[in-house]
């Protein structure tokens, strides 16, 4: 979710890049799972998060929904998936031992916590969330090491482009609504949901060479196609 808030209210006032040191290292969290509970619908997933979980669990997008792992919500004029909290307000991937059952493929928001992302145009930096992590005595660690993400440069580019696209669609929807042309907003939301989350990003013949780099490239190409299609829809 893109929120317009003052960084100084929610952080230590600084921003961080991949090679900066930041006081984020929880040392393994020592049995804590506070940030996996009570998160409502705030852990919004991007296409990479969903693809990773689909592959790991060998499930389709529809199965993730029907099994109650994820749910859909309207965010910035788009229908986007988020992790679903169960009736006890625990993430549906949190196991009985209080550990993440999909740790290897946990979503980006989980991966970087207690860091968050602050977007500026087509780029973003990290910030350290204030008063959110239960462990106060954290050690300094390089951002790149903490976020533990493969192909981190390509991942950064993908996330920047995805969020810029989401922002563009959101702004466009507001403009459509304000000019009395809002009837196509639902079509746009369904188009984005189907193209980037429901449908396979790969063609069947590409599966044998499927990796993160190819995934990012295909999604970024899809964003260009989607922009033109959305302009056509409206
Ligand atoms: S996916 Fe894993 S790390 Fe993320 S909130 Fe759920 S249990 Fe916690
Ligand atoms: S709140 Fe902090 S210490 Fe607790 S699980 Fe989350 S990151 Fe780890």
Strand order of the largest sheet: 1-6
How much is the radius of gyration in Å? 18 Å
Taken together, the total number of domains comes to 2
Name the bound molecules.
iron/sulfur cluster
Sheet of most strands: 2 strands, antiparallel
Categorize the overall geometry.
globular
Structure keywords:
234 residues; globular; two-stranded antiparallel ribbon; 2 domains
Structural description of this entry:
This protein is an alpha+beta fold. It has two domains: about 10-145, no CATH class; about 150-234, no CATH class. About 40% of the residues lie in helices and about 15% in strands. A two-stranded antiparallel sheet has the order 1-6. It has a two-stranded antiparallel sheet with strand order 2-3. β2 and β3 form a beta hairpin. α6 (about 150-180) runs parallel beside α8 (about 210-234). The protein is globular, with a radius of gyration of 18 Å. It starts with 6 loop residues before the first helix and ends with a helix. The model has no long low-confidence stretch (mean pLDDT about 95). The chain binds iron/sulfur cluster (SF4) (2 copies). One iron/sulfur cluster binds near residues 100, 106 and 110. One iron/sulfur cluster binds near residues 26, 35, 133 and 135.
């Amino acid at each position: 979710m893109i929120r317009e808030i003052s960084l100084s209210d929610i952080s230590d006032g600084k921003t961080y890049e991949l090679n900066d040191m930041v006081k984020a290292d929880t040392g393994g969290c020592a049995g804590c799972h506070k940030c996996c509970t009570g998160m409502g619908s705030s852990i919004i997933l991007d296409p990479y998060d969903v693809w990773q979980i689909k592959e790991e669990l060998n499930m389709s997008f529809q199965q993730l929904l029907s099994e109650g792992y994820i749910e859909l919500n309207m965010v910035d004029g788009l229908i986007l998936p988020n992790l679903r909290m169960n009736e006890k307000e625990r993430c549906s991937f949190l196991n009985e031992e209080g550990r993440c059952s999909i740790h290897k493929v946990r979503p980006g928001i989980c991966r970087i916590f207690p860091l968050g992302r602050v977007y500026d145009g087509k780029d973003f930096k990290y910030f350290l969330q204030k008063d959110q992590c239960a462990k106060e005595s954290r050690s300094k660690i390089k951002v790149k090491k903490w976020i533990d993400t493969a192909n981190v440069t390509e991942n950064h580019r993908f996330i920047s482009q995805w969020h810029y696209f989401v922002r563009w669609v959101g702004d466009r929807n507001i403009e459509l609504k304000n000019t009395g042309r809002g009837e196509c907003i639902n079509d746009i939301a369904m188009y984005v949901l189907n193209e980037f989350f429901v449908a396979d990003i790969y063609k069947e013949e590409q599966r044998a060479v499927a990796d993160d780099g190819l995934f990012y490239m295909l999604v970024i190409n899809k964003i260009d196609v989607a922009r033109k299609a959305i302009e056509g829809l409206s």
